[in-house]
Amino acid sequence: MKIHITGLSHKTAPVEVRERLAFGEHVLPKALTSLCEMPGVREGMILSTCNRVEIAVAMDDNDHHLLTENLFADVSHVERDWIRPFVYSLDEREAIRHLFRVAASLDSMIVGEPQILGQLKNAYAVAKAHGSLSGFLELLCTRAFHVAKRIRTETEIGESAVSVSYAAVELAREIFGSLEGRKVLVVGAGKMAESAIRHLQRAGVSQTLVTNRTRERAEKLASAYTGTVIPYEDFIVRLPEVDIVIASSGAPHFILTRDQMRKVMSARRNKPIFLVDIAVPRNIEPEANKVDGVFVYDIDDLQKVVDQNLAGRLNVAVEAERIIEEEVDRTLVRLKTREVTPAIVGVQEQLEHWRLAEIEKVRGRLSDLTPQQMEAVEALTRGLINKVAHGPISELRKSAEQGGGDVVLLVRRLFRLD
After folding, report:
1. Does residue 141 have an active-site annotation?
2. What SS3 string covers the chain?
3. Catalytic residue, candidates 21, 35, 46, 50
4. pLDDT tens per residue, range 91-118
5. What is the model's pTM?
Protein backbone atom coordinates (compact mmCIF):
# COMPACT_ATOMS: atom_id res chain seq x y z
CA MET A 1 0.00 0.00 0.00
CA LYS A 2 1.27 3.47 -0.91
CA ILE A 3 0.22 6.96 0.17
CA HIS A 4 -0.15 9.73 -2.39
CA ILE A 5 -1.25 13.36 -1.97
CA THR A 6 -2.38 15.60 -4.81
CA GLY A 7 -3.16 19.20 -3.95
CA LEU A 8 -2.71 22.92 -4.24
CA SER A 9 -2.26 25.62 -1.61
CA HIS A 10 -1.65 29.32 -1.09
CA LYS A 11 1.95 28.61 -2.07
CA THR A 12 1.09 27.25 -5.53
CA ALA A 13 -2.24 28.82 -6.53
CA PRO A 14 -3.87 32.26 -6.18
CA VAL A 15 -7.18 32.61 -4.38
CA GLU A 16 -9.24 32.63 -7.59
CA VAL A 17 -7.88 29.18 -8.47
CA ARG A 18 -8.31 27.79 -4.96
CA GLU A 19 -11.91 28.93 -4.72
CA ARG A 20 -12.72 27.38 -8.09
CA LEU A 21 -11.23 24.01 -7.12
CA ALA A 22 -12.58 23.94 -3.56
CA PHE A 23 -14.82 21.03 -2.53
CA GLY A 24 -17.99 22.37 -0.94
CA GLU A 25 -19.75 20.37 1.78
CA HIS A 26 -22.52 19.46 -0.64
CA VAL A 27 -20.15 17.74 -3.09
CA LEU A 28 -17.86 15.99 -0.58
CA PRO A 29 -19.87 12.74 -0.19
CA LYS A 30 -20.11 12.22 -3.94
CA ALA A 31 -16.46 13.17 -4.41
CA LEU A 32 -15.34 10.66 -1.77
CA THR A 33 -17.42 7.96 -3.43
CA SER A 34 -15.92 8.76 -6.84
CA LEU A 35 -12.44 8.80 -5.30
CA CYS A 36 -12.73 5.35 -3.77
CA GLU A 37 -14.21 3.92 -6.98
CA MET A 38 -11.05 4.79 -8.91
CA PRO A 39 -8.91 1.79 -9.89
CA GLY A 40 -6.38 0.89 -7.21
CA VAL A 41 -7.65 3.40 -4.60
CA ARG A 42 -8.28 1.71 -1.27
CA GLU A 43 -8.81 4.74 0.99
CA GLY A 44 -9.33 8.44 0.43
CA MET A 45 -9.69 11.75 2.25
CA ILE A 46 -10.31 15.30 0.99
CA LEU A 47 -9.12 18.41 2.84
CA SER A 48 -10.63 21.65 1.51
CA THR A 49 -9.94 24.96 3.29
CA CYS A 50 -9.43 28.60 2.37
CA ASN A 51 -5.74 28.04 1.77
CA ARG A 52 -5.48 24.48 0.45
CA VAL A 53 -7.34 21.73 -1.35
CA GLU A 54 -5.76 18.29 -1.06
CA ILE A 55 -6.69 14.71 -1.88
CA ALA A 56 -4.91 11.97 0.07
CA VAL A 57 -5.23 8.36 -1.04
CA ALA A 58 -3.89 4.95 -0.12
CA MET A 59 -3.30 3.09 -3.39
CA ASP A 60 -2.06 -0.25 -4.69
CA ASP A 61 1.62 -0.19 -5.54
CA ASN A 62 1.30 -0.18 -9.31
CA ASP A 63 -1.59 2.19 -9.86
CA HIS A 64 -1.17 5.57 -11.53
CA HIS A 65 -1.60 8.44 -9.04
CA LEU A 66 -2.62 10.97 -11.70
CA LEU A 67 -6.13 9.60 -11.38
CA THR A 68 -6.70 12.04 -8.52
CA GLU A 69 -6.18 15.00 -10.85
CA ASN A 70 -9.21 13.79 -12.76
CA LEU A 71 -11.33 14.25 -9.64
CA PHE A 72 -10.30 17.92 -9.39
CA ALA A 73 -11.18 18.37 -13.05
CA ASP A 74 -14.51 16.53 -12.88
CA VAL A 75 -15.82 18.25 -9.75
CA SER A 76 -14.74 21.72 -10.87
CA HIS A 77 -15.65 21.23 -14.56
CA VAL A 78 -12.25 22.29 -15.82
CA GLU A 79 -9.60 20.69 -18.02
CA ARG A 80 -6.82 18.77 -16.31
CA ASP A 81 -4.24 20.74 -18.25
CA TRP A 82 -5.60 23.92 -16.66
CA ILE A 83 -5.12 22.46 -13.17
CA ARG A 84 -1.65 21.01 -13.63
CA PRO A 85 0.45 24.22 -13.19
CA PHE A 86 -0.99 24.74 -9.71
CA VAL A 87 -0.92 21.16 -8.40
CA TYR A 88 1.76 19.26 -6.49
CA SER A 89 2.00 15.47 -6.23
CA LEU A 90 3.71 13.77 -3.30
CA ASP A 91 4.43 10.09 -2.67
CA GLU A 92 5.50 8.00 0.28
CA ARG A 93 8.02 9.78 2.54
CA GLU A 94 7.32 13.23 1.05
CA ALA A 95 3.57 12.68 1.36
CA ILE A 96 3.87 11.61 5.01
CA ARG A 97 6.14 14.57 5.81
CA HIS A 98 3.66 16.93 4.12
CA LEU A 99 0.72 15.50 6.08
CA PHE A 100 2.60 15.95 9.35
CA ARG A 101 3.69 19.51 8.43
CA VAL A 102 0.11 20.46 7.52
CA ALA A 103 -1.23 19.09 10.81
CA ALA A 104 1.45 20.98 12.76
CA SER A 105 0.66 24.21 10.82
CA LEU A 106 4.22 24.42 9.45
CA ASP A 107 2.80 24.66 5.93
CA SER A 108 0.14 27.22 6.83
CA MET A 109 0.07 30.79 5.58
CA ILE A 110 0.65 31.77 9.20
CA VAL A 111 2.91 29.25 10.90
CA GLY A 112 1.48 28.15 14.23
CA GLU A 113 -2.17 28.95 13.54
CA PRO A 114 -4.41 26.37 15.26
CA GLN A 115 -7.28 26.19 12.77
CA ILE A 116 -5.73 23.78 10.29
CA LEU A 117 -5.51 20.92 12.79
CA GLY A 118 -9.24 21.23 13.47
CA GLN A 119 -9.94 21.35 9.74
CA LEU A 120 -7.81 18.25 9.17
CA LYS A 121 -9.60 16.41 11.98
CA ASN A 122 -12.92 17.38 10.42
CA ALA A 123 -11.82 16.06 7.01
CA TYR A 124 -10.74 12.85 8.76
CA ALA A 125 -14.13 12.55 10.53
CA VAL A 126 -16.07 13.12 7.30
CA ALA A 127 -14.04 10.48 5.44
CA LYS A 128 -14.33 8.07 8.37
CA ALA A 129 -18.11 8.52 8.56
CA HIS A 130 -18.36 8.04 4.81
CA GLY A 131 -16.45 4.76 5.03
CA SER A 132 -13.61 5.93 2.81
CA LEU A 133 -10.96 5.89 5.54
CA SER A 134 -9.64 2.83 7.36
CA GLY A 135 -6.42 1.01 8.08
CA PHE A 136 -3.37 2.48 6.36
CA LEU A 137 -4.44 6.08 5.74
CA GLU A 138 -6.28 6.22 9.05
CA LEU A 139 -3.06 5.24 10.82
CA LEU A 140 -1.18 8.06 9.09
CA CYS A 141 -3.84 10.59 10.07
CA THR A 142 -3.77 9.59 13.73
CA ARG A 143 0.04 9.83 13.65
CA ALA A 144 -0.28 13.32 12.15
CA PHE A 145 -2.53 14.36 15.05
CA HIS A 146 0.03 12.96 17.50
CA VAL A 147 2.86 14.86 15.79
CA ALA A 148 0.92 18.14 15.90
CA LYS A 149 0.25 17.69 19.62
CA ARG A 150 3.91 16.85 20.29
CA ILE A 151 5.13 19.97 18.47
CA ARG A 152 2.74 22.23 20.36
CA THR A 153 3.83 20.62 23.63
CA GLU A 154 7.59 20.60 23.04
CA THR A 155 7.99 23.91 21.21
CA GLU A 156 6.65 27.46 21.53
CA ILE A 157 5.03 27.44 18.11
CA GLY A 158 1.61 27.94 19.68
CA GLU A 159 2.59 30.58 22.20
CA SER A 160 1.71 33.43 19.86
CA ALA A 161 -0.33 31.42 17.39
CA VAL A 162 -2.35 33.52 14.97
CA SER A 163 -5.04 32.88 12.44
CA VAL A 164 -6.01 34.42 9.14
CA SER A 165 -8.60 36.53 10.93
CA TYR A 166 -5.94 37.84 13.32
CA ALA A 167 -3.76 38.76 10.34
CA ALA A 168 -6.74 40.67 8.94
CA VAL A 169 -7.03 42.66 12.16
CA GLU A 170 -3.29 43.35 12.10
CA LEU A 171 -3.68 44.67 8.58
CA ALA A 172 -6.47 46.99 9.71
CA ARG A 173 -4.32 48.18 12.60
CA GLU A 174 -1.45 48.86 10.20
CA ILE A 175 -3.77 50.93 8.04
CA PHE A 176 -5.30 53.02 10.85
CA GLY A 177 -2.37 53.08 13.24
CA SER A 178 -4.88 52.32 16.02
CA LEU A 179 -8.35 50.79 16.12
CA GLU A 180 -9.39 52.80 19.15
CA GLY A 181 -12.74 54.45 18.47
CA ARG A 182 -13.27 52.63 15.16
CA LYS A 183 -16.55 50.96 14.23
CA VAL A 184 -16.40 47.54 12.58
CA LEU A 185 -18.93 45.45 10.72
CA VAL A 186 -18.41 41.68 10.62
CA VAL A 187 -20.37 39.82 7.96
CA GLY A 188 -20.60 36.14 8.85
CA ALA A 189 -20.98 34.13 12.05
CA GLY A 190 -18.57 31.25 11.58
CA LYS A 191 -15.27 30.52 13.29
CA MET A 192 -13.40 33.03 11.16
CA ALA A 193 -15.87 35.77 12.07
CA GLU A 194 -15.71 34.83 15.76
CA SER A 195 -11.94 34.94 15.71
CA ALA A 196 -12.01 38.34 14.00
CA ILE A 197 -14.34 39.80 16.64
CA ARG A 198 -12.17 38.47 19.46
CA HIS A 199 -9.03 40.08 18.03
CA LEU A 200 -10.84 43.30 17.14
CA GLN A 201 -12.05 43.77 20.69
CA ARG A 202 -8.56 43.18 22.03
CA ALA A 203 -7.36 45.85 19.60
CA GLY A 204 -9.76 48.38 21.13
CA VAL A 205 -12.58 48.90 18.58
CA SER A 206 -15.39 51.01 19.99
CA GLN A 207 -18.31 49.13 18.46
CA THR A 208 -18.78 45.88 16.58
CA LEU A 209 -21.76 45.24 14.36
CA VAL A 210 -22.55 41.62 13.45
CA THR A 211 -24.74 40.37 10.65
CA ASN A 212 -25.44 36.99 9.14
CA ARG A 213 -27.98 35.49 6.78
CA THR A 214 -29.17 33.33 9.71
CA ARG A 215 -30.02 35.87 12.41
CA GLU A 216 -29.96 33.29 15.21
CA ARG A 217 -26.28 32.59 14.59
CA ALA A 218 -25.50 36.31 14.49
CA GLU A 219 -27.29 36.83 17.83
CA LYS A 220 -25.37 33.96 19.43
CA LEU A 221 -22.06 35.38 18.25
CA ALA A 222 -22.91 38.96 19.21
CA SER A 223 -24.05 37.98 22.71
CA ALA A 224 -20.78 36.15 23.32
CA TYR A 225 -18.70 39.20 22.37
CA THR A 226 -20.95 42.15 23.29
CA GLY A 227 -21.61 43.00 19.68
CA THR A 228 -24.72 44.50 18.10
CA VAL A 229 -26.78 42.49 15.61
CA ILE A 230 -28.13 44.17 12.51
CA PRO A 231 -30.46 42.55 9.94
CA TYR A 232 -28.59 40.94 7.05
CA GLU A 233 -30.77 42.71 4.51
CA ASP A 234 -29.83 46.07 6.04
CA PHE A 235 -26.08 45.76 6.37
CA ILE A 236 -25.34 47.65 3.13
CA VAL A 237 -27.46 50.55 4.41
CA ARG A 238 -25.31 50.66 7.56
CA LEU A 239 -21.98 50.64 5.71
CA PRO A 240 -21.61 54.45 5.58
CA GLU A 241 -21.23 54.54 9.38
CA VAL A 242 -18.47 51.89 9.69
CA ASP A 243 -14.74 52.18 9.08
CA ILE A 244 -13.79 48.53 8.61
CA VAL A 245 -15.66 45.58 7.13
CA ILE A 246 -14.54 42.02 7.83
CA ALA A 247 -16.29 39.81 5.26
CA SER A 248 -16.30 36.14 6.22
CA SER A 249 -19.62 34.72 5.07
CA GLY A 250 -20.20 31.45 3.28
CA ALA A 251 -22.06 33.11 0.40
CA PRO A 252 -21.19 31.53 -2.97
CA HIS A 253 -21.36 34.96 -4.68
CA PHE A 254 -20.26 38.55 -4.10
CA ILE A 255 -22.19 40.26 -1.32
CA LEU A 256 -20.54 43.63 -2.00
CA THR A 257 -20.05 44.96 -5.51
CA ARG A 258 -18.32 47.92 -7.09
CA ASP A 259 -21.63 49.70 -7.79
CA GLN A 260 -22.81 49.26 -4.21
CA MET A 261 -19.57 50.70 -2.85
CA ARG A 262 -19.90 53.75 -5.09
CA LYS A 263 -23.20 54.56 -3.35
CA VAL A 264 -21.69 53.87 0.06
CA MET A 265 -18.78 56.23 -0.60
CA SER A 266 -21.14 58.94 -1.73
CA ALA A 267 -22.97 58.65 1.61
CA ARG A 268 -19.63 58.66 3.47
CA ARG A 269 -18.55 61.77 1.57
CA ASN A 270 -15.53 59.78 0.35
CA LYS A 271 -14.25 59.10 3.86
CA PRO A 272 -12.00 56.01 3.41
CA ILE A 273 -13.37 52.56 4.20
CA PHE A 274 -11.32 49.36 4.45
CA LEU A 275 -12.78 46.06 3.34
CA VAL A 276 -10.98 42.89 4.43
CA ASP A 277 -12.23 39.82 2.58
CA ILE A 278 -11.17 36.63 4.37
CA ALA A 279 -13.76 34.40 2.72
CA VAL A 280 -13.24 31.75 0.04
CA PRO A 281 -15.08 32.07 -2.29
CA ARG A 282 -14.53 35.81 -2.00
CA ASN A 283 -17.35 38.01 -0.66
CA ILE A 284 -16.25 41.30 -2.19
CA GLU A 285 -15.96 42.05 -5.89
CA PRO A 286 -12.30 42.88 -6.60
CA GLU A 287 -13.40 45.76 -8.83
CA ALA A 288 -14.66 47.55 -5.71
CA ASN A 289 -11.03 48.42 -5.03
CA LYS A 290 -11.18 50.84 -7.98
CA VAL A 291 -13.71 53.08 -6.23
CA ASP A 292 -12.00 56.15 -4.73
CA GLY A 293 -11.55 55.78 -0.99
CA VAL A 294 -12.29 52.03 -0.96
CA PHE A 295 -9.41 49.73 -0.07
CA VAL A 296 -10.06 46.00 -0.57
CA TYR A 297 -7.76 43.31 0.78
CA ASP A 298 -8.40 39.61 0.14
CA ILE A 299 -6.93 36.58 1.81
CA ASP A 300 -3.80 36.61 -0.36
CA ASP A 301 -3.02 40.18 0.68
CA LEU A 302 -2.60 38.92 4.23
CA GLN A 303 0.72 37.40 3.17
CA LYS A 304 2.40 40.67 4.16
CA VAL A 305 1.30 40.19 7.77
CA VAL A 306 2.24 36.52 7.54
CA ASP A 307 5.81 37.35 6.53
CA GLN A 308 6.21 39.62 9.53
CA ASN A 309 5.01 36.88 11.88
CA LEU A 310 7.17 34.25 10.25
CA ALA A 311 10.35 36.18 10.96
CA GLY A 312 9.92 35.70 14.71
CA ARG A 313 9.15 32.00 14.43
CA LEU A 314 12.04 30.71 12.34
CA ASN A 315 13.92 29.25 15.31
CA VAL A 316 10.80 27.52 16.57
CA ALA A 317 10.06 26.18 13.09
CA VAL A 318 13.56 24.69 12.86
CA GLU A 319 12.97 22.68 16.03
CA ALA A 320 9.53 21.65 14.80
CA GLU A 321 11.00 20.47 11.50
CA ARG A 322 13.47 18.29 13.43
CA ILE A 323 10.56 16.67 15.24
CA ILE A 324 8.78 16.14 11.92
CA GLU A 325 11.78 14.28 10.45
CA GLU A 326 12.08 12.15 13.58
CA GLU A 327 8.39 11.26 13.44
CA VAL A 328 8.49 10.52 9.70
CA ASP A 329 11.37 8.07 10.26
CA ARG A 330 9.51 6.44 13.13
CA THR A 331 6.31 6.16 11.11
CA LEU A 332 8.05 4.63 8.11
CA VAL A 333 9.62 1.97 10.35
CA ARG A 334 6.22 1.26 11.87
CA LEU A 335 4.63 0.95 8.45
CA LYS A 336 7.37 -1.34 7.18
CA THR A 337 7.12 -3.47 10.32
CA ARG A 338 3.41 -3.63 9.73
CA GLU A 339 4.06 -4.99 6.24
CA VAL A 340 6.16 -7.91 7.58
CA THR A 341 3.82 -8.69 10.49
CA PRO A 342 1.79 -11.22 8.43
CA ALA A 343 5.03 -13.06 7.61
CA ILE A 344 6.09 -13.08 11.29
CA VAL A 345 2.70 -14.38 12.37
CA GLY A 346 2.85 -16.94 9.55
CA VAL A 347 6.23 -18.27 10.70
CA GLN A 348 5.01 -18.59 14.28
CA GLU A 349 1.79 -20.32 13.27
CA GLN A 350 3.53 -22.68 10.84
CA LEU A 351 6.12 -23.75 13.42
CA GLU A 352 3.43 -24.30 16.03
CA HIS A 353 1.46 -26.39 13.50
CA TRP A 354 4.53 -28.54 12.82
CA ARG A 355 5.24 -28.90 16.54
CA LEU A 356 1.74 -30.11 17.35
CA ALA A 357 1.74 -32.44 14.35
CA GLU A 358 4.98 -34.11 15.49
CA ILE A 359 3.71 -34.54 19.05
CA GLU A 360 0.52 -36.06 17.70
CA LYS A 361 2.56 -38.63 15.73
CA VAL A 362 4.22 -39.97 18.90
CA ARG A 363 1.39 -39.38 21.34
CA GLY A 364 0.84 -43.13 21.72
CA ARG A 365 4.40 -43.59 22.93
CA LEU A 366 3.97 -40.73 25.39
CA SER A 367 0.92 -42.20 27.11
CA ASP A 368 2.92 -43.46 30.08
CA LEU A 369 4.26 -39.98 30.87
CA THR A 370 3.02 -38.21 33.95
CA PRO A 371 1.29 -34.80 33.54
CA GLN A 372 4.46 -33.15 34.81
CA GLN A 373 6.57 -35.02 32.26
CA MET A 374 4.12 -34.09 29.49
CA GLU A 375 4.43 -30.44 30.50
CA ALA A 376 8.21 -30.80 30.24
CA VAL A 377 7.83 -32.17 26.68
CA GLU A 378 5.59 -29.23 25.80
CA ALA A 379 8.08 -26.76 27.24
CA LEU A 380 10.99 -28.45 25.47
CA THR A 381 9.35 -28.42 22.05
CA ARG A 382 8.14 -24.84 22.46
CA GLY A 383 11.64 -23.76 23.43
CA LEU A 384 13.09 -25.44 20.32
CA ILE A 385 10.47 -23.78 18.13
CA ASN A 386 11.20 -20.36 19.64
CA LYS A 387 14.93 -20.79 18.99
CA VAL A 388 14.22 -21.78 15.38
CA ALA A 389 11.87 -18.80 14.92
CA HIS A 390 14.15 -16.22 16.54
CA GLY A 391 16.59 -15.87 13.64
CA PRO A 392 14.02 -15.54 10.81
CA ILE A 393 11.82 -13.17 12.82
CA SER A 394 14.80 -10.96 13.71
CA GLU A 395 15.79 -10.83 10.06
CA LEU A 396 12.22 -9.96 9.06
CA ARG A 397 12.17 -7.04 11.51
CA LYS A 398 15.60 -5.88 10.37
CA SER A 399 14.43 -6.13 6.78
CA ALA A 400 11.44 -3.90 7.63
CA GLU A 401 13.69 -1.23 9.13
CA GLN A 402 16.06 -1.33 6.16
CA GLY A 403 13.32 -1.51 3.52
CA GLY A 404 14.42 -4.79 1.98
CA GLY A 405 11.72 -7.10 0.62
CA ASP A 406 13.94 -10.03 -0.46
CA VAL A 407 14.17 -11.44 3.07
CA VAL A 408 10.39 -11.53 3.37
CA LEU A 409 10.07 -13.50 0.14
CA LEU A 410 12.85 -15.90 1.19
CA VAL A 411 11.33 -16.56 4.64
CA ARG A 412 7.91 -17.16 3.15
CA ARG A 413 9.37 -19.73 0.76
CA LEU A 414 11.48 -21.45 3.44
CA PHE A 415 8.52 -21.88 5.78
CA ARG A 416 6.04 -22.75 2.99
CA LEU A 417 3.80 -19.78 3.79
CA ASP A 418 2.53 -19.24 0.24
Report:
1. no
2. CEEEEEEEECCCCCHHHHHHHCCCCCCHHHHHHHHHCCCCEEEEEEEECCCEEEEEEEECCCCCCCHHHHHHHHHHCCCHHHHHHHCEEEEHHHHHHHHHHHHCCCCCCCCCCCHHHHHHHHHHHHHHHHCCCCCHHHHHHHHHHHHHHHHHHHCCCCCCCCCHHHHHHHHHHHHHCCCCCCEEEEECCCHHHHHHHHHHHHHCCCEEEEECCCHHHHHHHHHHCCCEECCHHHHHHHHHHCCEEEECCCCCCCCECHHHHHHHHHHCCCCCEEEEECCCCCCECHHHHHCCCEEEECHHHHHHHHHHHHHCCHHHHHHHHHHHHHHHHHHHHHHHHHHHHHHHHHHHHHHHHHHHHHHHHCHHHHCCCCHHHHHHHHHHHHHHHHHHHHHHHHHHHHHHHHCCCHHHHHHHHHCCCC
3. 50
4. 889 999 999 999 999 998 878 888 899 9
5. 0.60
